Amino acid sequence: MKLKSVLIENFRAIEKIQLPLHPQLTVLVGENGTGKTSFLDAISMVLGEIPSYFKLQKRRFFDDNDLTNHLKSSIESAPYVRVQLENMAGLTWHYESQPSQKNEPQLNSLTELHKYLEQMINDLNESKIVEIPVLAYYGMNRDTLTIPNESQFDREFHRFDALKNALNVTPDFGTLFEWFFGQENLEHREKFERKDLDY
């Protein structure tokens, strides 16, 4: 899934920004403290609706620190926060929250996304070829904290495993090690069966 545009209002230091995204690559450049991480956090929060729909991750809500405090003459927060995404196919969804709503997004704004995801499930159940969204968001801490024991590597991966914890700020690269090790084993077996070391 490629995003076409992002609209963010009253999210942290961002009062309002609407940014079209390039279909291949968008690069955010700015000095420290200008909102690059806030921009990415906002996108990941709304993209998080996809793995949460499949029960692979908890839905993240806005909290009090996400509401902009940009009103110049008072210390009041903005009346709402809104983050809207549009993909290349024209599918649009958003999270919007007001302090009085206990910072939970309006779920009716997700109807079209949920229809899209439900159709994906139906197509998979009918054995149709389906592309599932690929999501990944890595925060500033990209250390590999633990490398799994190789004895745990022999397991089967399912397509939706790619969405598990894909948007956690502190990624766990252990699953990547497991997948890579499994792929390497498949290649070694195939070379042996074909008796072709160049395979």
Automatic annotation (TrEMBL):
GO terms for molecular function: ATP hydrolysis activity. Residues 6-168 form the Rad50/SbcC-type AAA domain. InterPro entries: P-loop_NTPase, Rad50/SbcC_AAA. Pfam families: AAA_23 (PF13476). One of its GO terms (biological process) is DNA synthesis involved in DNA repair. This is Rad50/SbcC-type AAA domain-containing protein. It comes from Candidatus Thiomargarita nelsonii. The lineage of its organism: Bacteria, Pseudomonadati, Pseudomonadota, Gammaproteobacteria, Thiotrichales.
